[in-house]
Amino acid sequence: MARIIVVTSGKGGVGKTTTSASIAMGLARRGHRTAVIDFDVGLRNLDLVMGCERRVVYDFVNVINQEANLNQALIRDKREDNLFILPASQTRDKEALTKEGVGRVLDELAQSFDYVVCDSPAGIEHGATMAMYYADDAIVVTNPEVSSVRDSDRMLGILASKSRRAERGDEPIREYLLLSRYSPERVARGEMLSVDDVKDILALDLLGVIPESQSVLSASNAGVPVILDEASDAGRAYADLVGRYLGEDLPHRFLEAQKKGLLSRLFGG
Amino acid sequence: MIELKAGNFTLPVMRLLGTDLDGLGEELAAKVEAGAGFFQHAPVVIDLSSLPEDSGEVPFPLLVGLMRGHGMIPVGVRGGNPAQHEAAAAMELAVLADPRRSQSRPRTVPRSVPPAATHTGPGRLLTHPIRSGQRVYARGGDLVVMAAVSSGAEILADGHIHVYAPLRGRALAGVKGDATARIFCRDLQAELVSVAGYYRISENIGADLRGRAVQVFLEGRELRMQTL
User: What 3-state class would DSSP assign to B73?
Assistant: First the structure.
């Protein structure tokens, strides 16, 4: 049976799709058969970030409506044999996601995969609640600013009350905090919330901190999950994070402002 | 122009034992005479809970007329069934909460079951964080929270509220009007605190109290906040 992971946040633009793509890729590269599903019906993005947008034939909604079977809709990643992408439909709206339909697709995926990563749309409406309903684990993506933290808090409340695990009274969803777009320099200047501030407010285990990095944008545009960019801070931070999710004890990196070089010190960088 | 607050009143309750209005008229006249003016312009609550099951409809229009004729001001009913509440509402009578019996509880509940009285039992205990957008109400007693209450969350209790972690949301104690209710918290960062309808918002909470262990209580008509 697969473990179902939802990547969620409440707020938009915090890095859910980037995170879904990198975590799915990271799990697959460690030998786990992994599927990643785009729940953002109508605003399909995951296929672009994964670089498979030109191979989409059928989508998630087709499978839910039984117009195609799962094998027809799953796209195998060209870089990693263990990784499959189930894209969202761009022409439908989120009402096409029914609780029964999503449950059936996830059940079927759970038979043959180790991990199913659900990339949630922003908001707390139907699409987001469908993405988290069947989850076993939740990765809550938060930026170090107050509105993002509050929205994440709201989403955590929904995870604790509206999921299948909550409704059945099972063991609650395991919740992890992922802090993205973190800039130690701006934290030092007091312009951003620090890791400790966010941990304190949300009272969650910190799975990882992804530093603000140019490489995230260029990787997205190139259709390459940033975890594959091993030269970048963000890529290495995602690799650590996948290790931590799998139970490895890795220290958090990239939390301190980098020492300024001579030039930047001279010119006040 | 207005200020909304919870108030607490003690009202005379007239317990209806039957629906025979002729007999009632005589009894009422005797009682009012004995009361020597006590019932003049007195707001009175009609208690329906002792009516026999088979007593049929309560003739509210006649009953209200009779009471007014004796100088009383009938303001509401207590107890009774939904049909009686509907008839009472048609006569502009309020349906008041019966503290001894929740309205939805079926009448077949044996009398020996202790009613959910105020301030009994250990109260409600929560050990998980209360997240933004969540609302928790401890009906009929105290609320004890062992984890953080996030900003945008709301906790309410008929009795006291205790929070043994940062309180960042709203906390309302004594929401049914109990002025003796208090709020205790270990780390006050609340958006709003309220006791029996008297409230204070974050902006009006002194900086010297923020982040401190604080109790909030009502002294007369003033909400007081004190470090512990």
Answer: strand
